[in-house]
Amino acid sequence: MDLELSEDESSVALAFERVLARESSIDRVRAAEAAGFDPALWKVLAGMGTIVMALPEAAGGAGGGLVSLALAAEAAGRHLACAPIVEAAAAALVLAEVGGCGAQIVAAGGAGTPVVLAPRPAAGGVAVLVPGGAVASAVMALDDGELVLVRGAPGTPVRDLGYLAAADRPLRGDGVERQVLAVDDRARQLWELAIGWWRLGTAAACAGLARQALAVAAGYARTRHQFDVPIGSFQAIQQLLVDPVMAADGALLLAREAAWHHDHGVAAWRNAADIAYALAAETAVRAAEACLHVHGGYGYTLEYDAQLYLRRAKALLLLGGAPEAIWAGIGSAAMEGGH
C-alpha cells in the first residue's frame, strides 16, 4: 500500500486548500459562527462538485472515491468550514446505492441547502443533533428499522455545539415528507455503509483540524515571549506539543489508509474507518486542548482563535456517539476476526 498522494490527488488537495483558505478564513468562520453555516461557502463547494465527487460516474459523480472526499474533508477541518460536506456526501453515496434517486443526488450536490445524513439512529421519531440540520432541506436517518429521507423545515440550531448548524429534526408527523429508502436488513446494511463513510470523512476532518490547531499553537509559541525568549523554547511547551503532533500525523495516515482500502475494495475498510474516526476525534480534542494551554489564559477568551478549534473538536467527537462504545465495537470486531 502506497499512501503517497498521486499527482491527481495532490492537485485535489491543493485545490481545496486554496479555496478553503480563501472562502473559510477565520473572519468568515466567526461571521458564520451563530448559524453554523456559510451559504456562500456552501455554494462554492457545491459548485466544485465536492458533494458528488466520491460517487461513481454512472451515478452522476466524478468517480474520485473516498480518497478525494478525505482530502476535501482534511482541508475543511483545517479551516473550520461551516458547511456539512461530509454529511451531504455520505447522504449522496447512500442515494447512489439505492438507485433511481438521481434528482436527489443532484440536489444534494448543488442546491442552496444540503441534504444530510444524521450520524446517529433516530430516537422516538426524531433525528437528534444532525450536523447541518438547522439548514438542510432533507435529512437521511435510520428510524425504527427504516432508512428514510425526510424533507421538512430546518430545525433550530443547538448553541455552542461546534458551530456545525446541528439541530434535531422530526422524521414523522405534520409538515414532513417521508420517503422510505429501505427497510429491515437492507436498511441496516445501508446504514452501516453510511456511518462508515461518515466516520471516514469525519476522521479526515478531525485530522486536518488537529494539525491546524497545533500549527496555531506553534505559531503563538514562536511569537509570545517570556523572560526575553519565545515560550516555544521552554521544554514544558515542547513536551506539551510533541505527543499530539505525532498522534495527528498518525490520525491523518489512518484516515487516508481507510479511504484507500475503501477505494480498492478491501473489505476491512469499514473497521478501518471506525478506528480512524475514534483516534482522530480524540486526537483533535487533545491537539485543541494543547493549543489552548499554550495560549495560557488568553486561550479561554473568545477574542483568541484557540477556543474555536476546541469547540469544533469536542462537537465532532460527541456527534459520533460515545467514544468508549466505538472503541468497544472495534475491539469486538478484532476479537471476532481472530486478530
Low-confidence stretches: none
- What average pLDDT do the residues reach? 90
Strand order of the largest sheet: 1-3-4-6
Specify the number of helices: 11
Largest sheet: 4 strands, mixed
Would you report the number of β strands? 8
Q: What proportion of the residues is helical, as a percent range?
A: 55-70%
Shape assignment: globular
Structural class of the secondary structure composition? alpha+beta
CATH-assigned homologous superfamily of the domain at 188-336: Butyryl-CoA Dehydrogenase, subunit A, domain 3
- The radius of gyration computed from the alpha-carbon positions, rounded to a whole number of angstroms, is 20 Å
CATH class of the domain at 188-336: Mainly Alpha
CATH topology of the domain at 188-336: Butyryl-CoA Dehydrogenase, subunit A, domain 3
Just name the CATH architecture of the domain at 188-336. Up-down Bundle
Residue share in β-strands: 5-15%
Amino-to-carboxy terminus distance: 20 Å
Return the string of H and E elements.
HHHHHHEEEEEEHEEHHHH
Verbal overview:
- With 339 residues, this protein is of the alpha+beta class.
- The protein has a domain at 188-336: Butyryl-CoA Dehydrogenase, subunit A, domain 3 (Up-down Bundle).
- Helices cover 57% and strands 10% of the residues.
- The strands form three sheets. The protein has a four-stranded mixed sheet with strand order 1-3-4-6. Strands 2-5 form a two-stranded antiparallel ribbon. The chain has a two-stranded antiparallel sheet with strand order 7-8.
- Strand 7 and strand 8 form a beta hairpin.
- Helix 5 runs antiparallel to helix 6, helix 7 (184-223) packs parallel to helix 9 and helix 9 (269-294) packs antiparallel against helix 10 (306-319).
- The radius of gyration is 20 Å and the shape is globular.
- The mean pLDDT is 90.
